[in-house]
From TrEMBL, chain A:
Domain 4Fe-4S ferredoxin-type positions: 57-81, 86-115
The protein's name in its UniProt record: 4Fe-4S ferredoxin-type domain-containing protein
Database matches in InterPro entries: 4Fe4S_Fe-S-bd, 4Fe4S_Fe_S_CS, CobQ/CobB/MinD/ParA_Nub-bd_dom, P-loop_NTPase
Molecular-function GO terms, alphabetical: oxidoreductase activity
Domain of life: Archaea
Gene3D superfamilies: 3.30.70.20, P-loop containing nucleotide triphosphate hydrolases
Biological source species: Methanosarcina horonobensis HB-1 = JCM 15518
Pfam families named in the record: CbiA, Fer4
UniProtKB/TrEMBL annotation, chain B:
Annotated Gene3D superfamilies: 3.30.70.20, P-loop containing nucleotide triphosphate hydrolases (3.40.50.300)
Domain 4Fe-4S ferredoxin-type: 59-83, 85-114
CDD domains: SIMIBI_bact_arch
Protein name, entry field: Heterodisulfide reductase subunit A-like protein
Pfam families cross-referenced by the UniProt entry: CbiA (PF01656), Fer4 (PF00037)
PROSITE patterns, per the entry: 4FE4S_FER_1, 4FE4S_FER_2
GO molecular function, one term: oxidoreductase activity
Signal peptide span: none
UniProt lineage: Archaea, Methanobacteriati, Methanobacteriota, Stenosarchaea group, Methanomicrobia
InterPro entries, sorted: 4Fe4S_Fe-S-bd, 4Fe4S_Fe_S_CS, CobQ/CobB/MinD/ParA_Nub-bd_dom, P-loop_NTPase
Protein source organism: Methanosarcina horonobensis HB-1 = JCM 15518
Length: 284, 310
């Protein structure tokens, strides 16, 4: 079973929920798919080992073969190839790796070479948690291939908890699409509610069942709860607006470690999710 | 015209709360909400929309079922897995690269335009505002940010504003770069957490790259004073003036629930904590205004020198 932890935007507590849930359970896999800003390990502190380099195929032009017909440059939708009077210039950082340029080149002058765009790392064997994370190299714009490669490492024999990227753009949909259940983390404030509706819209578009974790509960108002009640969306857990939890977060300590009573609450939440995901999608 | 951008390495640091507060303190500013993924400034400022414009995104492949013979060549050439088994297109997967259109032997695939979001011009109680909504699953957000900034500049011209206040997107990616290029000053909002300093460093790297004068403030500084000192030390070393340390408070949320800026909230509800907090924000704003006018003076001085020399 795959559980994606998402929210309409950053700073709502996705990583907190993902890490604490994973630590509260036994024998699960935790995946940090927020490849632009993978923060889970700040709270876990593993010595990560690289397991895979993620590449994008970018064009390399053989100037001896190139006839300067400009087919490639006019075909490229991402402006990764620009034709100059005597040369075709390529900008690998803009390339999406679609392979179109080599397809349309009549002279066979384009060869595709792998260019590293990110790396997959994992916690060493024998760690208390199976943890994997992907990191997008700085200056690269292609988060989705890194997320896809990371998902290839999913071990189907265990429950998987996935920390999603923020927002509602392509990378989040890539994660939600493969999930059996989506936990939306939010605060009950006007900003929180607004961003929650965006995330909900994305989950609905993909037909993934959702539940809500209310973070900083007690602050703000009841608008998220009222909405959830009316729409039949379960509120799975409430994390109060607690200074101790905020302080532990600021120090990079998962609060289940210092507040063991929370372990039970996360275990209970996992049980609820299992029941709900079964009912909705028929998975075990 | 001056431009101030408010950014932070990640979301949830208080950018929008501060931008909203500044909008109620500044006289004669236009606003640009460049967080097009999750635009929250309108929730406080209640804009009245005067104009909307679609932002074109990447195109989308479309297969004509009458021409398609089901040969699967499009599925083989698509590197994004966007052609589904029944020969329809998954819009969230398709990157509009057009490879399928040239590969299809039946000419059954074409590209159709797609809208990635809307840029909106509005009027608020504190002046004109440009904002946007990015559609679900779309990614051309840098483009939409540029559109918002263009609209804000037009509004500023139209309403004779001397300043544009930009609420930046989170992160350090393409949309942030689009939000800060050409601005006169950047305020980085930081937090004393394990990721806070890391995110601040990345944001400062970015502003240094674009050679934009940068100032910083720490939000919720008292949640971890040790980390706050680390941030302070970094700022000192990097030559970034640290203009304010804002305390951990529920005032910002209370004001948000009332759909008011913290400045308005303090004035309306006579809450002593709120007044104190509003005063810290006011002082921060005065510091920023001073720096904005300083750089303005510097600029006019150097211009005057140039004229004299020529």
């Amino acid at each position: 079973m795959r559980i994606a932890i998402a929210s309409g935007k950053g700073g709502t507590g996705k990583t907190t929920v993902a890490v604490n849930l994973a630590l509260a359970l036994e024998d699960v896999q935790l995946l940090d798919c927020d490849v632009e800003e993978p923060n889970c390990n700040l709270f876990l502190g593993f010595e990560l080992e690289p397991v895979e380099e993620v590449n994008c195929l970018v064009p390399e032009i053989d100037p001896d073969r190139c006839t300067l017909c400009r087919n490639c440059a006019s075909f490229c939708k991402y402006n990764a190839l620009v034709s100059l009077p005597k040369k075709i210039l390529s900008f690998p950082s803009l390339c999406h790796g679609c392979g179109g340029c080599s397809l349309v080149c009549p002279a066979g002058a384009i060869e595709e070479k792998p260019e590293p765009i990110g790396v997959i790392k994992k916690a060493p064997c024998g760690s208390p948690l199976t943890f994997l994370c992907g990191t997008l190299n700085i200056g690269k714009a292609m988060a989705t291939p890194v997320i896809r490669s990371l998902q290839n490492h999913i071990d189907e024999s265990k429950p998987v908890i996935i920390d999603s990227p923020p927002g509602t753009a392509c990378p989040v949909l890539e994660v939600m699409e493969c999930a059996d259940y989506c936990v939306l983390v939010t605060e009950s404030t006007p900003f929180g509610f607004h961003d929650f509706l965006l995330a909900l819209e994305a989950a609905k578009a993909l037909n993934v069942p959702v539940g809500v974790v209310l973070n900083r509960d007690g602050l703000g108002d009841s608008r998220v709860e009222d909405f959830c009640r009316a729409e039949g969306i379960p509120v799975l857990l409430r994390i109060p607006d607690d200074r101790t939890i905020a302080r532990l977060y600021s120090e990079g300590i998962p609060f289940v470690k210092e507040m063991p009573e929370w372990k039970k609450k996360f275990e209970h939440m996992f049980g609820t999710i299992k029941g709900l995901a079964c009912k909705n999608t028929g998975v075990q | 015209m001056r431009q101030l951008a408010i950014i932070s390495g990640k979301g949830g640091c208080g950018k929008t709360t501060l931008t909203a507060a500044f909008s109620s303190l500044s006289e004669n500013a236009a606003l640009a909400d460049c967080d097009v993924d999750a635009s929250d400034l309108p929730l406080i400022l209640k804009p009245q929309v005067i104009n909307r414009e679609n932002c074109p995104g990447l195109e989308l492949a479309s297969i004509d079922p009458n021409l398609c013979t089901g040969c699967s060549i499009c599925r083989e050439v698509c590197r994004f897995g966007a052609v589904l088994e029944n020969f329809t297109i998954n819009p969230y997967g398709c990157e509009g690269c057009a490879v399928c259109t040239v590969a299809c032997p039946e000419n059954a695939v074409s590209l159709v335009p797609r809208v990635s979001g809307q840029a909106v011009s509005s009027i608020t109680r504190f002046g004109p505002m440009a904002h946007a909504k990015l559609d679900i699953g779309e990614e051309a957000s840098g483009k939409l940010v540029n559109m918002v900034r263009k609209k804000a500049a037009e509004l500023a011209d139209q309403y004779c504003c001397k300043l544009i206040l930009i609420d930046g997107p989170p992160g350090t990616g393409c949309p942030v770069m689009a939000a800060i290029t050409g601005t006169d000053l950047v305020l980085v909002v930081s937090e004393p957490t394990v990721s806070g300093l890391h995110d601040l460093k990345r944001a400062v790297e970015l502003t240094a790259h674009f050679k934009i004068p940068t100032v910083a403030c720490i939000n919720r500084y008292d949640i971890n004073k040790k980390k706050s000192l680390e941030i302070e030390a970094f700022c000192r070393e990097a030559g970034i003036p640290l203009l304010a340390c804002l305390p951990y408070t529920d005032i910002t949320t209370k004001a948000m629930v009332k759909e008011e800026t913290v400045i308005e909230y303090a004035a309306h509800w006579m809450d002593s904590g709120a007044v104190e907090f509003a005063n810290i924000v006011r002082k921060l704003w005065e510091e920023i205004e001073m720096r904005l006018s300083e750089s303005f003076e510097k600029e006019t001085c150097s211009r005057a020198l140039k004229i004299r020399k020529s």
